[in-house]
Specification:
Length: 209
Amino acid sequence: SGADITLAVDAGATFDAGEWSAAAVKSRTNVVTGSKLNSITNSLADTTLAGGIGKVLAKYTFVFENGANRDTANEELKAIFDKLVITVSKSAAVVITNVKANIDGTATKVAANTLTTLGAASTSGSATWNATTLQGLTDSGKADGSVTLVITGDVVTTANEFVQTSLADLNGSGSDDSFNFIGDGELLGAALTNMYLPVADVAGATLSN
């Protein structure tokens, strides 16, 4: 048309007619790369409590979304288990020892690092696993998609007793949550403690007799 066109630099995030974006702000798209935990649910139905060795006490299913992310070794990025605390409510006569965790469908079991007040006369306690122990699970404790953790223990019980487990603190506030994981694929990375799940706790199955 023969008319002059005047262009001006726009330093903001939006443009008007006749403006172009400065190089420093040409893109305002942020991309988060890593593993996301979408949900934790109880996957064990209420059942009968029986004494014995290696009895199933709980099953919890974790659903991770890892997408097509890769780690620094160009391997598929997976979530890495970093901390697990199982809270136990029980009858006073029930005694629980040798508590272990394994990924459902695999043989490798890892014993809890700490058992607290799971003996006779107590009605509540806990089992805790740290990062080193959890990363002794199959595939170094790495998880992708849906993964179920099975909790077992040696149980001594009499009649009319019960046991119920829970992940009692999942509110993402502070560093005391019942479950933490590493989401950037790096074992030396910081554990994700603020998960922002739609639930603050998850109750497990009730085992009774």
